[in-house]
Amino acid sequence: MKIIGHRGAAGLALENTIASIKAAKKAGVDAIEFDIRMTSDEQFVLSHDQTLSRVSPHHHVVKDVASEHLADIVLHNGERLPTLTEALQAAGTTPVVIETKGSGWAAHLAKFLENYEPIDATVISFNHRELGRFAKLAPAVPTFAIERTKPFDAIQFAKQNKFTGVDMNFWLLNPLTYWMARRKGLQIIVYTVNFRWIAWFLNLLFPAISITTNHPHAMQFLRRKQSSRS
Q1: Among positive and negative, which fits the CA dihedral 150, 156, 160, 166?
Q2: Which residues are CB-contacts of 45 (< 8 A; sequence separation ≥ 6)?
Q3: pLDDT tens-digit profile of 66-87?
Q4: Average pLDDT of the chain?
Q5: Who contacts 183 (Cβ-Cβ below 8 Å, separation ≥6)?
Q6: 81-118 tens-digit pLDDT
Q7: CATH code of 132's domain
Q8: 63: three-class secondary structure by DSSP
Q9: 227 three-class SS
Q10: How confident is the model at residue 223 (pLDDT cuts 50, 70, 90)?
Q11: Dihedral angle at the C-alpha atoms of 9, 12, 15, 17, nearest 10 degrees?
Q12: What is the spatial distance between Cα 159 and Cα 137, in angstroms, rounded to a whole number?
């Protein structure tokens, strides 16, 4: 079972910040997940919400503001709002899982990743149609359809659009959804697993999946379980 830090490591530092990414690396994750949105001048910055009100004193809507203005915003932890480039630099050689928010980003992200230095990146999104457009533009980049309520629809759409896999709420994972996804050759990520007993249970039943967690430091016991099996 692979461990993916959620929004960096949101249980250890302010989400989607350089500090959070560094905390995830220190915790020994297999990959670092973070959210991006496109600014009014078509640049990518890290943000989960449409506005910055939860992570800063400001209420700017990300898509309506130019990146040069967003660069001046100080977050609650004293950092500046990170760009995608800064996030990738902070992640270094650790694989990243980029969750894309909003719409209209497919061509811009495909171009960005094509021009960036070689990187181990996966792109995931709730916007399945936009993700499908991205997958056609960047077929070498792994893609996962995120789903919170309709796993079978997501599995079918992922198969039809040649995605790498599905990323579903862990409550949706059961023997049937697991079997159907694997039968169609899809990999599985589940979110957001923040309790050790849930991680233990999922690892017992579905050891081939990956979990996303705010607390990657608390999930290292999974490494010991895996080592004892080998």
Answers
A1: positive
A2: 36, 37, 39, 62, 67, 70, 81, 82, 83, 84
A3: 999 999 999 999 999 999 999 9
A4: 96
A5: none
A6: 999 999 999 999 999 999 999 999 999 999 999 999 88
A7: 3.20.20.190
A8: helix
A9: helix
A10: confident
A11: -90
A12: 17
Return the structure tokens found at 90. Answer: 């902070």
Question: Total domain count for the chain?
Answer: 1
Q: Which two tokens stand for residue 109?
A: 């992200």
Chain-centre distance of CA 64, in angstroms?
23
Work out the percent of the chain whose per-residue pLDDT is above 90: 96
Dist. CA 49–CA 103, nearest whole Å: 14
The answer for residues whose C-beta is within 8 angstroms of residue 1's C-beta and 6 or more apart is 199, 202, 203, 206, 207, 208, 209, 210, 211, 222, 226
Nearest-angstrom CA–CA distance, 190 and 193 = 7
- Global pTM exceeds 0.85: yes
Q: What is the extent of the structural domain holding 16?
A: 2-229
The vertex-122 CA angle with 218 and 203, nearest 5°, equals 35
